[in-house]
Amino acid sequence: MTTPRGRLLSILQGPSVAQACYALAKLGIPDLLADGPRPVGELAEACGAQPRALHRLLRVLVYLDLLEQPEPGSFALTPVTELLRSGTPSSMHGTAMIYGEDVFRSLAEIMHPLLHGRSGFEKVNGKPIYDYLNDNVEAARTFNKSMSRNHIPEIIDTCDLAGSKVVIDVGGGTGRLLAQVLTDNPHLRGVLQELPTAVEQARELFTDAGLADRVDLVPGSFFDAVPEGGDTYILARVLHNWNDANALTILGRVRAAMEPGGRLLVVEDLVTDDVNLVDLLMLVQLEGHDRTEEEYRALLHAAGFDVLDARRLTDGPRHVPGVIEATSNARDSRKNQPPNSPHI
User: Quick one: 162-335 is in which CATH superfamily?
Assistant: First the structure.
């Protein structure tokens, strides 16, 4: 039975384990071991590491059951570290890069948001995360690749798109969700709006999926404008990244772009409890936070939307995938600027 002291020590040592996995992925060791065990000398030469230092790292990962050592000085992957290979369908290599670099450095500045109300990421990098990614192409590609591995919310399958013609995915990343929607609904055309680096990665995805002739890619920021011409708009896991004032600005841009009778689908984890590790990561990296269904309803109402329906896949977990369907209310959305932040 683990004592309180032992449990706390294990928790405090947690970052060491995470950084060891990051180093393994950063050096490309999982790719080098893809075909089976190899001696540490070969691995060191192939990745440019110091043999003795690499040997020490690999031995620790064996101790943690994250690598195997079939014979002295020779190492092999386990099912866990197999996930750190790059370019495989289930790869978490990009996630390891994000956690080992940006998340790790942001967590080191956890006191900054607690004392000053601004993210640790901003303290480290001198600017908010999306401004940083917009200015750093390689970092943006790694970030987008990591996010593209996120599970597509199954709740989107409950949305009736039979009467829709054009779906516009606002802030849709590299396009995986929109690609799924277009595949499942052959009558639809799609529009993806994202920052330029993500749009270029999305172009590859839609081409590979045979959907390039059914989608328009619009590089740009939803803070400036949102594409017009859609009858259905999607904001999937976008609003939780932003504080209330910026979330209202985004909603205002969407509302201004919508035709009368248009529909907005807000796909988010509708929390029933504020306690979640994801919230801590958002605290140090972003300005936003997860919200309850009631909080999203209040945001939509303040932005000039009427909520038509809200539903979840299941009940119980703290973070429950859900969708809120809304439509612009009777005011003329095209004549309205994004509203100022109300007290909600």
Answer: Vaccinia Virus protein VP39 (3.40.50.150)
Tokens at residue 112, please? 């900054």
Hey, where are the domains in the chain?
4-82, 93-143, 162-335
User: Which CATH code is given to the segment(s) 4-82?
Assistant: 1.10.10.10
Give the Cα separation of 215 and 179 in Å (integer): 9
Q: CA 1, CA 19: separation in Å to the nearest integer?
A: 27
Place of tokens 């450095």: 105
Contact call for residues 305 and 251 (beta carbons, < 8 A)? yes
Q: How far apart are the first and last CA of the chain?
A: 47
Q: Which of 55, 187, 240, 289 is catalytic?
A: 240
Q: Containing H/E element for 251?
A: helix 244-257
Tens-digit pLDDT profile for residues 107-123: 999 999 999 999 999 99
Q: What are phi and psi of 223, to 5 degrees?
A: -75, -20
Cα gap 322→152, rounded to integer Å: 12
Does the annotation count 240 as an active-site position?
yes
pLDDT in tens, 194-226: 999 899 999 999 999 999 999 999 999 999 999
